[in-house]
Amino acid sequence: MTVALYARRKQWPLEGVVVRLRHSKIHASDRADCETREGILDRIAREIDLQGALGAEQRAKLFEAAMTCPVHRTLKSEIDIQTRLAG
Which of 1, 13, 49, 82 has the fewest CB atoms inside 10 Å of its own CB, making it the most exposed? Predict the structure, then answer.
């Protein structure tokens, strides 16, 4: 949604966005840049297909928008999930 809104605001010829995700588990120790040193981490591999007659600079800007969208930021942050049973 963030990418589409950005393109619409700029009046760029974005015709569609297709996002493909793959989920896997990896060992924390396999990631040199990871703060977590032990255990298993979730890995999400994301591929973004920008459809339309876009130039290289437009594609780069739309990619930047995808990397800063609220969902991406939430998934990259530490998450505290608190669950309770209703009733």
Answer: 82
